[in-house]
Amino acid sequence: MLRKRWAIHSLVVVSLLASLLNYLTPYDVVITIGLPVRVSPSAGAVWYLANVTFKLTKLQPYAEDPIKPKWLRSEYDRNPLEPFYFDLRVGLTGDSRNYTYVFKHVSFDKSGEYYVQLSHQFTGVPHGKYCLIIEYPRYFKAGVVDPANWVISVVFF
Amino acid sequence: MFYTTKQDERAKRHWDGFGWGDRILTAFLLGAFLISFSSVGLASVIEFVFQKMLLEAFGYAQLPTLWFCSAIIMLWLLLCWRKACEGPIYGNATRWWWNASSRELRSSLFTVPFYVLFFLLVIILLSPIYGPISEVMLSIWVNLLASVLALLLFSCFPCFVCVFLIAGIPADWISPQVPKYRSIRITKVLSMLCFRRLLPIARRVILIALVGSLLVLADRSFHMFTSSFSHMELDSHENFLVVGTARRYDVLQPTKATYWIRIPRFPIFRNVTIPNPSNYSFTFVKERTDLGIRQVSAETRNATYEVLVTKGKLSAFNVIPNKQEMLPLVVIPLVLNFNDNITDSRIRMAVINETTRKTGASTERKEVTIQIINKEDKGAVFREILVDTIQRQRLEVFKYVDGKFSEKWVQNFPYVRLYFFHCDPGKVYTITFVIDYTTE
Q1: B330 at A interface, C-beta within 8 A
Q2: Who has the most CB within 10 Å: A31, A46, B142, B159?
Q3: Which of A19, A156, A157 sits opposite B218 (nearest CB)?
Q4: Average pLDDT in the B307-331 region?
């Protein structure tokens, strides 16, 4: 009888600790940014961010940062002489923690309209309120010519 | 079914003296009273659960159904009770049914409600881990606890009272029980509750507390049964909005808050209650195009919502995801557009000069100068700021910005306003209104 009681207590305490540890484990935040890009023979442009999503996981193995440019259509009869490119910076600023990542050299060699999807996984992000800053280019040729900011507050529960 | 079988009881003799017609009438009256009275508590609990917790929005057309269900449940409980007593309940009540019922039933009649109440208390204490909805969760659990207590008080307790009254307990049985509650007995009872006797109770209490915590934490950690928030996005990039009068104004921040609601792995509680996040907008409008300064609009995808209004103010949204979208760990958005009152803004407006002088036999000129300072890092729109009120039929108004003429208009109403003036970040503007009017 005594052993049974101890077994029940142990089971409850172990389960409680497991749940507590899982609850306290910080998030892995996968931020996915979608942006339409227009490339002419003379320059490229990003007018706005189409879609920014957050996927919250825990104890996720680190994934590579995919950059998926999808070429849609073109109205131009010629391509740029050299590929145009830009850097896109993503910053996650909390009360005591800052996370920054730069997607370097996102390049385009054909004229036309693209839909580009970028993903990055920030690991070990605790619950709390953060300020997400995405610095993207309005115009670009070689690097960012005219940068714009997209700022939003995010609360991870 | 529930009448006593003991031949020597007054109630049994009373029953035997009845004709069949009287028996049927008495049984009907008694049963109708018991069922209708006892179902009040259950109905309130079920109504509350339907309103706050369960899958579908509750309609008052369902009240008769709820009443019927609660009556059936109560009847079923009475039947179980009778079966456990192995005889008519009233009969057993006259010889203290407690002794007739089995030990398990006796213990469960006390321990189950105790554990349920204790578990609810634990949940209430732990509810802050639900983050921003903690207040709502707290109110839900407090209400649920109150409903359970109401059920016990208004359903179970009257039931017992009725049973004892009908059973006709003799006064000589009751009177020996009364001295038990004298203070000397209480002292004895307290002395018996020594530390060793309290240990098993303490052990059970701790176990229940741990199990309660475990359920809440596991639900929160592994997204098991209740819908929860994944994250919230607050978009407040729009310019500040200033409303009111030149002397008393509010600085508002138009905000778009997107709540992402995560469907649990094993959905039981589908609803999520989101409190109104605004400290200024308390009126709900369906279309965003109708959005006034004190109004909140909502949009959602793959879900419906209902608005909870308390004392005429919008207090919360009850979001109900669609059944076909109830896939594990899917997130559903609720977008709220509202204004927030910024109390510590660095936007200032003040009346720095106000003069009135005669310009003719029957004409006057009033000059009101206001200064606007914007030390924030984004713009501010001054929307319909009341500058002055002059009770005259016709006003001719000249507006000067930083000493330069800006515009002129004539109006037939007494309120002089500054309409939709945009103030860039870091700028200071001095605006002068020159108002001509006749004194007659």
Answers
A1: no
A2: A46
A3: A19
A4: 82
